[in-house]
């Protein structure tokens, strides 16, 4: 009898320990605990230590963090009938835990399958060139198309990134040839632009040199003209001063007509002695005659017996 009671007590202790273990749950940060009672939704538990009724309630842990899902590489056909290999990553997040668990059998599998079909649909509506040049636009189109279905599942698509777009080998070779031709074209254009700019620079340099040369010649002519003008002014001033000095000296001596006539005849004598082929005759003949008469009068007043007669 005692043995039976001991076994019963041991079973009770084990059941109590199992109940305690099953009633205590720990929810990690970034997760949410969903409590169901006999399969029916009852409550949601936030991160931390929580308790449930053992053997009656059950709790399922759901990850509510943003989760990247990299899909499988799949072959799609673009609008211009080119088969390419595409791989994309979908960043999704559970925003309504109740919808995610009870409106879809497996929201993760459903999201992956939806991503594959959306990739085929989006790439089928664009050309190959658009696929290479508009990756961000393709990601936005995929996100918009997937959100129409995932909103009903309590799953939000944060963004979609296209990781890989691989066309066939012959398309790659054609693209490489096109890129090479484009590079050669740009090189020729840059070379011609460089030659044009060089010619423009040379012409501009020649124009500037011609302008500087003309300015230098003009400045030189101006300086020479100023020099000649200054020389003439100085010469005129010298002559004016000489004439003024001579005039002042003559006026100071108070010359008479006889002296003036003698100076005129002396000047004519110097002209006659010069080796010039031309003889300058004064236009004022009356003055010359007056000078001769005055000289005759002077000569008549000199005695005949004087040594200078």
Task: Give an overview of the whole structure.
The protein has 4 domains: 11-63, no CATH class; 67-167, Band 7 domain (Tetrahydropterin Synthase, Chain A, 2-Layer Sandwich); 170-253; 255-271 and 283-299, no CATH class. Strand 2 and strand 3 form a beta hairpin. With 309 residues, it is an alpha+beta fold. Mean pLDDT is 82; it is low at 304-309. The chain has helices at residues 2-23, 97-102, 107-123, 128-133, 135-150, 169-253, 257-273, 285-301, and strands at residues 24-27, 31-37, 40-45, 48-51, 57-63, 67-70, 74-77, 83-94, 155-166. The strands form 3 sheets. Strands 6, 7, 8 and 9 form a 4-stranded antiparallel beta sheet that branches. A 3-stranded antiparallel beta sheet has the order 3-2-5, with no helix packed on it. Strands 1-4 form a two-stranded antiparallel sheet.
* Helix-residue proportion: 55-70%
Number of domains: 4
Biggest beta sheet attributes: 4 strands, antiparallel
Low-confidence stretches: 304-309
| Number of DSSP strand runs | 9
Mean pLDDT: 82
| CATH-level-2 architecture of the largest domain | 2-Layer Sandwich
Gross morphology is: rod-shaped
In CATH, the homologous superfamily of the largest domain goes by the name Band 7 domain
CATH topology of the largest domain: Tetrahydropterin Synthase, Chain A
The secondary-structure class comes to alpha+beta
């Amino acid at each position: 009898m005692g043995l039976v009671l001991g076994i019963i007590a041991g079973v009770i202790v084990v059941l109590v320990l199992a109940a305690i273990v099953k009633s205590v749950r720990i929810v990690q940060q970034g997760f949410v605990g969903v409590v169901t009672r006999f399969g029916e939704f009852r409550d949601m538990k936030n991160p931390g230590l929580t308790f449930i009724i053992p053997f009656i309630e059950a709790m399922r842990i759901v990850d509510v963090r943003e989760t990247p899902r990299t899909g499988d590489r799949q072959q799609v056909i673009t609008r211009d009938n080119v088969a390419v290999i595409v791989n994309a990553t979908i960043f999704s997040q559970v925003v309504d835990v109740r919808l995610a668990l009870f409106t879809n059998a497996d929201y993760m599998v459903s999201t992956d399958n939806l991503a594959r079909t959306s990739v085929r649909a989006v790439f089928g509506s664009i050309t190959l060139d658009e696929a290479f040049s508009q990756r961000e636009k393709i990601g936005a189109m995929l996100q918009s198309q997937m959100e129409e279905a995932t909103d009903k599942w309590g799953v939000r698509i944060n963004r979609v990134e296209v990781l890989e777009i691989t066309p066939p080998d012959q398309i790659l070779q054609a693209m490489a040839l096109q890129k090479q031709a484009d590079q050669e074209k740009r090189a020729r254009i840059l070379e011609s632009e460089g030659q044009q700019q060089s010619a423009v620079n040379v012409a501009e340099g020649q124009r500037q040199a011609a302008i500087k040369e003309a300015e230098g010649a003009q400045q030189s002519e101006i300086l020479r003209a100023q020099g000649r003008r200054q020389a003439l002014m100085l010469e005129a001033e010298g002559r004016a001063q000489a004439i003024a000095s001579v005039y002042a000296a003559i006026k100071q001596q108070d010359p008479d007509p006889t002296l003036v006539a003698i100076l005129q005849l002396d000047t004519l004598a110097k002209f006659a002695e010069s080796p010039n082929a031309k003889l300058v005759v004064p236009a004022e003949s009356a003055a010359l005659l007056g000078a001769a008469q005055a000289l005759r009068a002077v000569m008549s007043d000199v005695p005949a017996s004087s040594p200078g007669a």
